[in-house]
Amino acid sequence: MDKKIESIKGKLIVSCQALPHEPLHSSFIMGRMALAAKEGGAVGIRANTKEDIAEIKMQVDLPIIGIVKRDYTDSKVYITPTMKEVDELMEVKPEIIALDATSNIRPNGVSLEKFYSEIRAKYPNQLLMADCSTVEEAIFADELGFDFIGTTLVGYTEQSKHLKIELNDFEIIREIIKKVKHNVIAEGNINTPEKAKRVIELGAYSVVVGSIITRPQLITKSFAYALK
């Protein structure tokens, strides 16, 4: 395995993303956010859009998990949904490309299996991460051959809305780790240092933390809510 990828083992990846409707939406700001994350000890960055990734790469030399979030009218899938987004990401060459690996059908009725094989045929050496929402999806993505299995979408899909990632001491993460061959990256609602430490202890290869570090409006909201 590449030294850069080995460097994320047992360590923190920070998700630096701001969507168009959010106050910090700007490639310039995300580049500085990534730099701040690095100064704080992050060893990797998860980022959205080729523009943000290009800027982040100018600020930090850390492995990047790249995605493109885009809505399509005929599908619920929005994380790197089609080859168009993969091609965009390949222009800036993130170390890992993450995509929705849920059971939801992709735009134009394309199955995950077909999409996965198309990416592998076009970019055989690119590392891929499966953003999953259930244990079954994780097992399927693992069998397809994804390099990393992520718990990114647990609780965010129709089929997983009853699931909580941290419930019963991260039971879902433990089950996925037990049942898949590939490395598991824990992500989603890991919002305290203690939780981040715990998922690594349970065997996750790495942990992605986002909103609680990089979305000040949500952090502020939790304080304001506590004072109501």
Give an overview of the whole structure.
With about 230 residues, the protein is α/β, with parallel strands linked by helices. It has ten helices and eight strands. An eight-stranded parallel β-barrel has the order 1-2-3-4-5-6-7-8, surrounded by six helices. The longest helix is centred in the first third of the chain and has 14 residues, at about 25-40. It is globular, with a radius of gyration of 17 Å.
Topology:
Blueprint: H1 3-6, E1 12-16, H2 27-40, E2 44-48, H3 50-59, E3 64-67, H4 83-90, E4 96-100, H5 112-122, E5 127-131, H6 135-144, E6 148-150, H7 167-179, E7 183-187, H8 193-201, E8 206-209, H9 211-214, H10 216-226
Parallel strand pairs: 1-2, 1-8, 2-3, 3-4, 4-5, 5-6, 6-7, 7-8
Helix pairs in contact: 2-3
Write the element-wise H/E pattern from the N-terminal end onward.
HEHEHEHEHEHEHEHEHH
N-to-C terminal Cα separation, in Å?
50 Å
Give the CA-based shape: globular
Unreliable spans are none
- Enumerate how many helices there are, as a single number: 10
Largest sheet: 8 strands, parallel, barrel
| Helicity level | 40-55%
Radius of gyration: 17 Å
Strand order of the largest sheet: 1-2-3-4-5-6-7-8
The average pLDDT score comes to 97
What proportion strand?
A: 15-25%
Q: How many β-strand runs? A: 8
Output the structural class. Answer: alpha/beta
